[in-house]
């Protein structure tokens, strides 16, 4: 090699282009990385080795190699790297042998990053087309204004060494970059990181991002988390930051475990935040306008008349005709068409479970206008969707029944429904269901109440005080039953009605 060529190499090494870098604003519609990080870092396991360390700059990559003589030339650096991985890792973010420079980010956050076309082409079909395709670029500089420098460095680190360095503050921008350059393995690592850090406090934010990046598996996990922990998810700080399409998708679900009045309150909070985002005065008219079809997804008929009167009827979002129609729906039969769904949100995820407290049945049990009641507690949170009740021993009959679950300490009615059920004359139990799931908190006393109107029926005997039900994932759900004092038709632990409680975990 000519001496002039050697000098060129020396000069190139001594004049390494090291420019300052920083976090770039995320692409349009992407959640700002610092905002998502605040929610992810609370659940990230900082000891699992996946939280990123500082990415070494090109200067730190070469500063430990001493020049072989006074010329400053790096001599035989390859000898200290015994494997292909070590040699390629050394070249990461390094000017040595680089043949392309990426100008990443915008404005003050812009950073120049050296790379090697061969390494990038081997790891990414997009880079392969960029450098070797029919329309390959001949430029030694490639501008990437829509990518954050830190995320691009994470991508290069993976392509050069298979090392994954992602954390709460960089996972979404790294996922975006991995998708942009079709690096499926890194994309999978990012999604796995998000799954492992999914919680009620970030479920809505991650759902928005999963929909944006077309990650159906992650989106399904987020929706499952929201279904099972609806109250906590709706109360999380990030709920009001979601986009309208995500709000619509959630409100249309039949599996939310929450009373409709609480959904309405959460939707009001979202509409207030959306008005502010659009720089509109927060008025009932503007709130309904920004909600769009999401407003029609609220199932007002599932509320009690008291909940409706205290909330939606006074909110200003409904017009006078809608208010009158809904009050008629609550008070008259047949029910008028009100323009809002009345389908119960009872299609719970997971296996339906039933606790049965009577091993035997007898006849006969009469009804005089008072309720059969039984007190119960359970060792974990569950959602009751209905009762199993005994029917007539005379033959096929229809019963009218008023169901209630009452919080013992506060006397608050947690759930109620007036419905009918038909029996076939056998001593089986027959389902009477609530309009929507009733949340039961662990180690808290409740009263299950059923007021039946109909002929004499079968009843249970030799009742059990403690019943254990095997849950969906091997957990044990423990029920404790005791006598409910007060105006009781006679049901007790030992015998009576309400033989079964139907629930989900």
Overview of the molecule:
The protein is of the alpha+beta class and 505 residues long. The protein has 19 helices and 15 strands. It has helices at residues 3-14, 33-40, 58-62, 84-91, 117-123, 125-132, 149-161, 171-180, 184-196, 203-212, 216-228, 230-235, 244-251, 260-277, 284-291, 293-296, 305-310, 312-315, 320-331; strands spanning 100-104, 111-115, 141-144, 353-356, 360-365, 372-378, 382-390, 396-407, 413-424, 429-440, 446-453, 457-461, 466-470, 476-482, 500-504. The protein has a six-stranded antiparallel β-sheet, with no helix packed on it. Strand 8 (396-407) and strand 9 form a beta hairpin. It is elongated, with a radius of gyration of 32 Å. The N and C termini lie far apart (75 Å).
